[in-house]
Each structure stands twice: as structure tokens, then as C-alpha cells.
Amino acid sequence: MANILIVEDDKDLNNAYRMILENEGYTVQSAYDGKEALKKLESFNPQLILLDLLMPIMGGLEFLQHYDLVNKHADVKVLIFTNMENSPEVTEAYKLGAHRCIIKSWTAPHNLSKVISDTLSKSSVTA
Amino acid sequence: MTHKTANYSGSETENYGQQAAAEALFDSIGDGAIATDEFGKITQVNRVALKILGYKEADLIGKWFPKQIISLTEDGIPVNLIDRPITRAFLTGLPIREKMYYRRKDGVIVPVSVSVSPILLGGKPIGAIEVFRDITREQEIDRMKSEFISLASHQLRTPLSAIKTYSHMLVDGYMGDITPAQKKSLRTIISATNRMNELISTLLNITRIESGTIAVTPKLLQMNKTVEEVIRELALMAADKSINLTLAPVKADADVSLKTDNLILKEILTNLISNAIKYTPEEGSVTVSIKPRSRDIQVTVTDTGWGIPKYAQDQIFSKFFRAHNIVKRETTGTGLGLYLVKGLLDRLGGKIWFESEEGKGTSFSFSLPRSRPGEKTPKPPL
Fold first, then answer.
1. Where in chain B is the domain with CATH 3.30.565.10?
2. Has domain B219-369 been given CATH number 3.30.565.10?
3. B1 vs B111, higher pLDDT
4. Regarding predicted confidence, which is higher, B381 or B125?
5. What whole-number distance in Å separates Cα of residue B131 and Cα of residue A33?
6. What's chain B's average pLDDT?
7. CATH code at B31-134
8. Which of A39, B69, B106, B143 gives the lowest tally of CB atoms within 10 Å of its CB?
9. Does A13 reach chain B within 8 Å, measured CB to CB?
10. What is the radius of gyration, based on Cα positions, of chain A?
11. Which CATH class is domain B138-211?
12. Is B174 close to A109, i.e. CB distance below 8 A?
């Protein structure tokens, strides 16, 4: 099963997603802001990153700029997980290489698992 | 004053006094004020107007108002002569109020709130008076208010997401088995959080529309790309009801480009498509089709839902209106969605209409101009 990094500042939500994804058999690590995520990525190689946008210290967009998804990590899928639907930040995240945006408040756990498995299976086909 | 009046006769002195008093009154108006003759030539300017516009009196007196004082739209495009408030006031004989931008003498753009009234004598305009004020500070406060509402909405949703996620986890058995009664209670919690989320979203947008703070940033875009993006975001909502949500094929060589605000367009599409999903029974279908026309692009969202009863069809764009057949089946709506969509389309210069038959379904269509007045129609992509 794939490795997943959850980058979400809300501890309750981060724990919930972790529990859901570990239950599906993924290897999951958590970070609570973009800076911590970059540090984790020095030793953890995920196939998918679940990324919140509005976070303290370093937000999701700044993280994407530093991580350079387009040029350096084109094989890693980034799912934006936010409540800022239809916002300029989401459009910007797409420009920075994000694969898909999911609205937290609309998404039930089983749907989250489905989107993740679909995304990962597509990436393994194209790889 | 006594020296000046010494050369006037009694009635002339009286006239002079009245004229001086009128000029003093004009000059003392706390907002900018400019008076013109019937041809639009500037006859009088007060101190506040000179301060706001950065001109000296000699720069303006005797000059043609529309040429000397340049007014711009929100997008920085010069307002056509026919659309200038002063022209409209002359043509209609009615007072005109508007927010626009003036270019100062030094080139700086100032947002202003303008009110122009024709001066009528025997029913004929003999001039006009424009009163305007600098609304830079008001706009800044509106922007801050809008940012605050946006941030507050986001922060309100975060705990709601946690409530919803954990409730779902309990229902789905992540924490072990629960009784049917417990499951039912949890589903009520989930449904309530969904309603709260929708309310936050709608109220946020209505606040923006009604306060006039919704910013329009037109950019060249492809309608099919935006529709596809919204369909992707709503795919899970449709899947939950086993509803087939699709975009009807668009011809490969069709020109679906237009210049409009992508975020507002997404909001319109999100509302119409999510409404169609919400008001369509399970296993139904929702189809979005795009029809490019010469001056505009038409989008239609067709569902196989419960439809809108005839009696309600005149009222569906009214605030808080909900048809009885829908209230019986779907108790969670606010009656604000279509009111919001109509407001957003007005803002983009678009139109909306619908066809519906109760029990069979509804088609909502809207059209958006390929470009806004004053802009050239975008060329199709190469």
C-alpha cells in the first residue's frame, strides 16, 4: 500500500484522516503545517499528499512553491483538502500542480478513501 | 466687500449679494461639486472637487466636463460618453447615482460615489450639477469586512468538518459497532452540519453581493474547463445519490472562450448543479450542456428531478422562496441559492431562465456575454 502524508493544522481532523487511511492499509504520517511537512519529506517518501491550504507558519500554497511539485516531484499526487471552495487559493494550487481539490465539509470518510484510491490507481497506470 | 458694491445700483447690489451667497454656498458643500451648462461645459467647481481631482479652477472652468474629467470603470476602462452619469442625466432628465473611478490630474485613480442632477428650467435642462465624494476609505473598509467574513466563514467550517468526519466515522463503524438508534442520531448530526455548511456558504456570498463588495476580475477562460472543474468537485455528492452527472460533449472546434470572472462563474455552476443533484431522486441524471453563440455562451443544467410547480415559477428567484413540493421532500434548503445565482449573474452581465415540468425535471439555462461592455470580444485560442 502507498505512503500518504497528511498536512492539516486541525489536530482533530488530522487524527481522523489518519485513522481512516490507516484503516485502509496506507502508511500515514502527519504534519501540522507546511514547514513541518517539508521536514518530514526529507525522510518520508509519499505517493500522495493530502494538503490543507490555510495553516499557520506555512500554508499550503507556500508549501507547494517550496516543494516544487511540477519540476521536482511530478510523480507525487497532491490532493487539496480545504473548505475554501471556489477561492483564488484553489485556482493557484492547481497552477502549482495540485491534482484535485476536495471540499472538507462535503466529503464523507468513505468518499475520501475512494478519491485517494482512484487517484493512486490512475498514477500507477500512467507511471 | 464695500469697495466692490460701491459701483452697483441697489438691485445690482442685491443680485451680486445673492450670486456671492450662492457661490459661497456651492463652495462650502462638503463633497466635490461641479456645475455645467446645458452643453456640459464646466461653469463652477468647488474646493473639495479641486482637492479630490488635483486640478486648479483654471484647468476646469469652461472645459467640456466629459473630456476634461476622465471616468473609468472598475476594470480601468474609460466609460463611454453615452454611459457617463452626466450624459444620462441630460438625456433622461432624472438624477443619476453611481460608483465609478476618476483619474486625477496626476494620473492617480480615485474611487468616487457620484450623484448628477439635471438643472431644469420649464422642463428643459439648462445645465447639470454633479456632487461626488472620494470613497477610497469606504472601499478599504468594505474589503476588510469582506476578508473578515471570508476568514470567519472558513474558521466556522473547520470545527463543523471535524463534527461531520467523526460522526461519519462512528456511522461507518471505525470505532466499533453501534445500535440503529445511535446511527440514526448520528445521521441527524451529519445532516445538521451539512445545513450549517450550506448556510455559511450562502450567507457569505449574499453578504458580498448585497454590500456590493463582490469583486469581479474578468479573465479569458474556456467554459468547458470551468464546468469540468465544478463537475469534478460535485462528483462525490452525485455519487452519494447514484446520480449520473455528466457534461454533454462539446464539439472539438467549438469556441467556448469568454472573458468573465472564473470564481463567480464557478459559484453559479456549483449552485445550479448542486441544486439539480439535491432535487433529483436517486438513480436520476443531471446533464450540463454548453452552447456557444456569437456574442455569448449558454450553459444549461438539466435534471430528471421533481420539477417546479407552475404556481411557484414566478417566485423562484425571490429571497427565501421554496416551493411546497420541495419543502416536503428536502427540508434543508434555505431558499437563497437561486436568489444568489441571479445576483451573481447580474453582476457578470448574464441572464438566467428555466423550463420545468413537475414530476419530470427542470432545465436551468444561463448566458454570459463573451466580454463585458467596453472590452473587445476575445479571439478564439489558436
1. 219-369
2. yes
3. B111
4. B125
5. 51
6. 85
7. 3.30.450.20
8. B106
9. yes
10. 13
11. mainly alpha
12. yes
